Amino acid sequence: MKISLALVISLSTALAAVAPGFGSVTRGGPGGVTVTPTTLAELKAALCGSKDSTGKCNDTTPRIIKITKTFDFRGSEGIMTETGCITKACPNPANNELALARSGFCDGRTSTTVKYDAAGTTPLLVGSNKSIIGVGSAGKLLGKGLILKGGQNNIVIQNIQISDINDGIIWGGDAIQMDGASNVVIDHNHFARIGRQMIVTGFSAAKFISITNNYFDGRRTRSSFCDGSHYWLWLFLGANDKITVANNYIYHTSGRGPHTGGLKNGTIRLHMVNNYFDTLTGEGAIDGMTTTSFTLAEGNYFKNVTYPVYSYKSDPGYVFAPFVGAQTSAWSNCQTYIGRACVPNDQSSGSTAYRPLHIEALTPLTIYRKFLMTPVVASAVPALVTASAGVGKI
Ligand SMILES: *[C@@H]1O[C@H](CO)[C@@H](O)[C@H](O)[C@H]1NC(C)=O
Ligand SMILES: *[C@@H]1O[C@H](CO)[C@@H](O)[C@H](O)[C@H]1NC(C)=O
Ligand SMILES: *[C@@H]1O[C@H](CO)[C@@H](O)[C@H](O)[C@H]1NC(C)=O
Ligand SMILES: *[C@@H]1O[C@H](CO)[C@@H](O)[C@H](O)[C@H]1NC(C)=O
């Protein structure tokens, strides 16, 4: 068979998608140089080598950044002491979650002196066209998170542990923040012991994002509900977010799985697929806050989760969440709006009180059909996700 030259070239330059879903166009840094930083300064420079006069990262050079060791930022920028507060007093004060006085959070709460690590509050800037990839199970980022801000595009964050950022101190730092970012894949990472959000978007759009195959470990000593579980999991507040959250293992969290909308102009299109939620206390998992948040949750497995879908008293967020054996007549809406049957969620225990099937959540997804992954049956998810997600499995 004769193959044309044009075809040979397009085959050799075509790269496979790193992840399915909204982020499936993302390729990261291939085509650029591969660097292996060894010091904190080298890592910082590899992620973002230049800034413009406003402090925005303007380094768009394609780069593959291999993370072969632990980068421990703790203590590197000094220890701070200031007046903050206690989120909620626990029976044992050693379990009190603390907070820095930011955004009015400490108004009306009991004041206390908070000692924290400055490095946690100054995340690393990441520029466009970068792949940040852990090697084996060796890639770790301790004490500092990543921020993708001001229009960054085409970034892969894969196979690293991000942890130990002012654990137990709200506003002490997020693990990954996206504020005006597009085409991002966050895949096969491990998140643990983060002061505030494990992943947060807003207020500018986070478009075409896939959060796949990660471990989110919420176990901690200081917590919002005094129960050893992390409340601040995922907060999606961007002006035009389009996000897939799939095949993740989430354990011992107590809320915001995710919290969508509710502040400023947050408009969120979210597809939650085949995630395994294991032992969630407090408010449980999905919480759609406002009528500009649209969540389709299908094929997820909830084991020992207080509320798979949570609703505050006057919570109007739109969620379409079919469950095995319940209200099956409404499922045909999936065929109508996304062109296939939805795969129901499953749960082993926990509340069955709120199982919304809002058609309003499906209609904004209609034009994005090609980005909607097809789930596997929910009962297969616990075994599948624990075997394939997390660090050291790419
Ligand atoms: C980034 O911005 C700085 C300051 O404006 C400028 O000197 C530099 O050339 C820019 N770098 C790139 C890669 O655009
Ligand atoms: C790098 O990123 C910029 C901004 O997103 C984009 O315009 C450019 O095409 C990218 N370059 C390469 C070589 O991928
Ligand atoms: C939403 O708000 C943010 C920040 O307030 C702004 O940057 C953005 O342009 C707004 N987007 C829309 C679609 O209004
Ligand atoms: C269910 O979760 C609770 C915490 O909410 C925990 O105490 C209990 O051991 C869990 N049960 C099982 C069977 O995992």
Automatic annotation (TrEMBL):
Family annotation (PANTHER family): PECTATE LYASE 18-RELATED, PECTIN LYASE F-RELATED
InterPro entries linked: Pec_lyase (IPR002022), Pectin_lyas_fold (IPR012334), Pectin_lyase_fold/virulence (IPR011050), PEL (IPR045032)
Reactions that this protein is recorded to catalyse: Eliminative cleavage of (1->4)-alpha-D-galacturonan methyl ester to give oligosaccharides with 4-deoxy-6-O-methyl-alpha-D-galact-4-enuronosyl groups at their non-reducing ends
GO MF entry, a single one: pectate lyase activity
GO terms for biological process, alphabetical: polysaccharide catabolic process
Transmembrane segments: none
Function: Pectinolytic enzymes consist of four classes of enzymes: pectin lyase, polygalacturonase, pectin methylesterase and rhamnogalacturonase. Among pectinolytic enzymes, pectin lyase is the most important in depolymerization of pectin, since it cleaves internal glycosidic bonds of highly methylated pectins.
Annotated source species: Linderina pennispora
Top-level taxon of origin: Eukaryota
Keyword Chaperone tagged: no
Protein name as annotated: pectin lyase
Record-linked SUPFAM superfamilies: Pectin lyase-like (SSF51126)
Enzyme Commission code: 4.2.2.10
